Amino acid sequence: MEYSLDQELLINSLAKEKVSDLQRLLHEKNSVLSDQQREGVSRELRQYQELLFQNRLNRQIELR
């Protein structure tokens, strides 16, 4: 599926915001996450980071 530049930039900004929120949640000193919740947040964080990486690669390929 191809996205317009505006759509890709929106996806990128939303994903970056989500990554920031998840990192903050994982690394808070007063975190009350259970081990299972922590694993879920960590898994979701990895998925968003992979999405950002793939998005960046796709944009670089399109520019060539």
Rg is 14 Å
What level of helicity do the residues show? over 70%
Structural class based on helices, strands and sheet pairing: mainly alpha
How confident is the prediction overall: mean pLDDT? 89
H/E element sequence: HH
The separation of the N and C termini measures 19 Å
Strand content: under 5%
The major pleated sheet works out as: none
User: What's the total number of strands?
Assistant: 0
The coarse silhouette is elongated
The count of helical stretches stands at 2
Q: Unreliable segments (pLDDT under 50, ≥5 consecutive)?
A: none
Explain the layout of strands and helices.
Elements: H1 5-27, H2 35-63
Q: Keyphrases for this structure?
A:
mainly alpha, 0% strand, 64 residues
